[in-house]
Specification:
single chain, 258 residues, alpha/beta, Aminopeptidase, two-stranded antiparallel ribbon, 36% helix, globular
């Protein structure tokens, strides 16, 4: 708590937000890259406004879709209130990718030559309370005899290092593929999106950290959803994606738990 007090201003607020905390649904949604906001103490990290608004700072559209799905499935949503440029909450403190000094083709001056103490402060102020909130929420649900299906929601850029990405929705998993398998099988019967397994990233890239930390040890059904961000750039696209994914998720969970 001391680190958080030192780290954030009163205007910043805290690092974690919880939507629909009393939701009755089985799904617990998580959005690690929900915001492009920077804590006041870091200014602009030496980056121009257009870069700070780009995909290197957050997952555009992901929070909007996650919120719609949370409403549709009456489920709780936990999301990070600050940019992954400060700390990527889907990476453990020991990962070099937790705090990047280069993202894609962009240097991040404010992240260069960080001391061990600074890296530890960021982890304690952002990563620890975020992951603790997820852990405590799951524990409370378990104590109340409630099922939890952990679903993380992300978006990805359609062009990466100059290369176009054809995949539109990725269904990602680590060692436990039960829910992903069902969702992929159900998606294969539709033609709305090009849906692929472990694309455009996979567990080897370290992107399933939250699932591996919370779902795998407890045997919880889990999946990570990646949506190409040009498809969810406006309310219409966000609504279509949320409707599609909510149905896919609900049908797949039902098939596995009936």
């Amino acid at each position: 708590m001391l680190a958080e007090t030192q780290f954030f201003t009163k205007a910043d607020g805290g690092p974690v937000a919880v939507d629909n905390a009393a939701g009755a649904g089985d799904v617990l949604f998580v959005c690690e890259h929900a915001s492009a906001r920077l804590p006041a103490r870091y200014g602009d990290l030496g980056l121009p406004a257009d870069v700070l608004a780009s995909h290197i700072a957050w997952d555009p559209g992901a929070l909007a879709v996650a919120r719609l799905m949370s409403q549709q499935l009456d489920s709780t949503l936990i999301h990070q209130r600050f940019s992954r440029l400060i700390y990527d909450c889907n990476r453990p403190p020991e990962s070099p990718a937790a705090i990047r000094d280069v993202s894609e083709v962009f240097r991040i001056p404010g992240n260069e030559n960080l001391t061990k103490a600074e890296r530890s402060l960021r982890a304690a102020s952002l990563y620890t309370p975020f992951q603790d909130c997820i852990r405590d929420t799951i524990a409370a649900r378990r104590a109340a005899g409630r099922r939890t299906v952990l679903v993380t929601v992300h978006s990805f850029t359609p062009v990466y290092f100059g290369e176009q990405r054809a995949v539109e929705i990725g269904i990602l998993h680590a060692d436990d593929s039960r829910l992903a398998d069902r969702m992929l099988a159900a998606a294969a019967e539709t033609h709305l999106y090009r849906v692929e397994r472990n694309q455009p990233y996979g567990p080897a890239d370290g992107v399933t950290h939250t699932l591996e930390l919370h779902a795998l040890p407890a045997g919880l059904l889990n999946v990570m959803i990646e949506i190409r961000n040009d498809l969810i750039a406006d309310e219409a696209g966000q609504g279509v994606a949320a409707d599609f994914l909510s149905r896919l998720l609900q049908e797949s969970i039902s098939a596995l738990t009936e």
